[in-house]
Specification:
about 600 residues, alpha+beta, six-stranded antiparallel beta sheet, 11 helices, 27 strands, about 25% helix, elongated
Length: about 600
């Protein structure tokens, strides 16, 4: 067959037959040039990714994971002693953990970066949605669809009342529950905008929680103090045993309140189970006003804007120690920290040298509230936390306590490196020792008793037995805001989960004998078991039914997964991802029934879609 000039033979068979030579190689296809994003394009792409809901959820999960090391490792702001102990126990990995910020997780740069990215992502997600939601609230409900048979929930009936009366009755039944509008095509109504409002309130509350938590870290403070009965506490840094201020908190801003621990009481059962603890205090507020208050477990006291919590308690025996020259070297209460349920308590007494030529003394041992001493005097133990038979059991050390070195010391630990333990005297009256077979000196003291120390080291007197209260003081101005945002977040979440989103349409036409032909349809977002009942309620309130034209669709008709848009569809408010409940286009509308689970008939017009 002859070929037309200028036409190409894709198989090149004719060229091979006529010339016996291969044809020219086909030209390479021209690749379209890819547009360059540029800096602005890349920044826009990064912003869109950051403000997507997917990235926001990923950042929220990442923040939760990043907070886990704060539970696994000791944190320097809360417990520096535990961090130091971790360094001693794990010298190989502790320096690396320190460099990576695992000992101060919530103050580390990487945690702050995740925190700020999450905050930015939430703001970027919420602000555009507020504008869209505001415009939707101000807009009219969607127009009445052309055909109600397309919707899964629809019904027709004939009423005996006139159209005007039916219209007024329908509007009355919708009032207060739906936003309504009367159009030439019928009545259109919509409800459920509170669902999106709740969603926005929930996300705004999350932002508020993040801001409140950040403010709490910056402007709060926390401190611990141990106060003995009869003694006072002043809200100044020097009176705290430990003080942890926020990043931007100035210690000079501490409110000048004071309080005195007047009495501490406790109640225990016979089997040593705690029943109640109460610390009765006299408070002087910054303005000079005074009052009495009681601090209990889970019932803090508020003073100067700070909450004062009762975190512990114990006994503080009041001791007087005289040196070998008869001078009072130490006098005061000594807190002994309880170690078990019967308040077996450990403590240390550090006695300085106040007279020339005298050694510094250290007394360490246990306090037993209700003591039972072994018959051979080898030991003692407590059987109940109440001070029924109080007893101090102490050992004695002499030497250099290191008090003159100017290095802070733990008041509950005795450094015995430069000290010697005092033993019972040898038979010849000389100082005893372990090599000589003597036992360490053990001092048993009851309230009111005085014991002379061996080797002419002085004496110790057990004066009386006051109690002490361990208090935790916290000032956090963000707490009211945290509570408010948490409550609004829960309310918003409930609204977004449980408020149904519905659209409802009613069309009226003059019927026979002066009545009204009434038809209605309803659509919900997702499954809504109450949708059909709501439509039935509106139609029942419209008037007296003469003929009910409700139809039923077959049960085997299923909703298509990806319905194609109808020809008369226009985009509904809410975006292109909205879908309407539809069925097969070839289904017979006359077989449709009301309901919310299956659909039949043609695809509804886009004005019937619900987002």
């Amino acid at each position: 067959m002859a070929r037309k000039a200028g036409t190409a033979d894709a198989t090149n068979l004719s060229s091979k037959a006529e010339l016996g030579q291969p044809g020219p190689a086909p030209a390479d296809p021209v690749q379209p040039a890819q547009p360059s994003l540029g800096l602005r394009g890349w920044l826009r792409w990064i912003w869109r990714q950051l403000t997507s809901m997917r990235v926001a959820l990923m950042l929220l999960l990442l923040l939760a994971v990043a907070a886990l090391p704060g539970s696994f490792f000791p944190q320097t702001p809360q417990d520096p002693a535990a961090v130091a102990e971790y360094h001693e126990n794990y010298p190989a990995i502790a320096p690396w953990l320190e460099r990576l910020g695992f000992f101060d997780v919530f103050g580390s740069p990487w945690f702050a970066a995740i925190y700020l990215l999450l905050f930015t992502s939430l703001i970027g997600c919420i602000v555009p949605r507020i504008g869209v939601h505001w415009r939707a609230l101000r807009s009219q409900p969607p127009r009445v669809p052309r055909t109600f048979a397309r919707f899964p929930v629809h019904e027709e009936r004939t009423l005996s009342e006139a159209p005007d009366a039916v219209e007024a009755a329908v509007l009355r039944s919708l009032k207060g529950r739906y936003r309504t509008a009367v159009t030439p095509d019928g009545i259109t109504a919509e409800r459920g905008y509170l669902r999106e409002t709740g969603n926005i309130v929930f996300h705004l509350s999350l932002v508020g929680v993040l801001l409140a938590m950040a403010a709490g870290q910056l402007f709060s403070y926390r401190g611990q103090a141990l106060v003995v009965e009869g003694e006072a506490f002043a809200n100044s840094v020097v009176d705290y045993d430990s003080f942890d201020p926020g990043t931007l908190f100035d210690a000079g801003d501490l409110k000048p309140f004071t309080f005195t621990l007047d009495e501490f009481t406790s109640e225990f059962t016979l089997d040593a189970q705690a029943r109640d603890f109460a610390a009765r205090v006299s408070v002087t507020e910054p303005d000079g006003s005074t009052r009495e208050d009681t601090i209990k477990v889970n019932h803090p006291m508020n003073a100067g804007g700070a909450n004062v919590y009762l975190s512990g308690n114990g006994y503080a025996p009041r001791l007087t120690v005289r040196d070998g020259a008869g001078e009072v070297a130490f006098s005061g209460p000594v807190p002994f920290l309880p170690e078990d349920a019967v308040y077996t308590s450990r403590g240390v007494v550090k006695v300085p040298d106040v007279s020339p030529g005298q050694e510094q003394l250290g007394l360490t041992g246990a306090f037993l509230p209700t003591a039972v001493v072994e018959p051979d005097g080898s030991g003692a133990y407590s059987i109940h936390p109440q001070p029924t038979a109080p007893l101090l059991v102490l050992t004695l050390w002499a030497g250099d306590l290191g008090l003159d070195d100017g290095v802070p010391q733990n008041v509950y630990v005795l450094d015995s490196d430069d000290m010697r333990q005092v033993y019972e005297e040898a038979p010849d009256g000389s100082p005893g020792s372990a090599e000589g077979g003597q036992r360490p000196v053990t001092i048993f003291l009851e309230p009111g008793a005085t014991v002379d120390l061996p080797e002419g080291l002085g004496s110790v007197t057990f004066e009386d037995l006051p109690r002490f209260a361990a208090l935790d003081l916290r000032y956090d101005p963000s707490l009211p805001y945290l509570l408010t945002f948490s409550v609004t977040a829960m309310l918003g979440l409930f609204g977004s989960l449980f408020v149904p989103r519905r659209r409802l349409w009613v069309r009226l036409a003059p019927g026979p004998d002066g009545g009204t032909s009434l038809s209605g349809a309803a659509l919900a977002r997702g499954d809504d078991p109450g949708l059909a009942r709501d439509l039935e309620r509106v139609l029942e309130a419209a008037g007296t039914t003469v003929h009910n034209g409700a139809t039923a669709e077959p049960a085997d008709v299923e909703e298509p997964r990806n319905p194609k848009p109808a020809d008369d569809a226009g985009e509904a408010p809410g975006g292109p991802d909205d879908t309407a409940a539809v069925a097969r286009p070839d289904a017979d509308p006359s077989r449709a029934r009301t309901g919310s689970g299956t659909t039949a008939g043609d695809q509804p017009a886009q004005e019937g879609t619900l987002r």
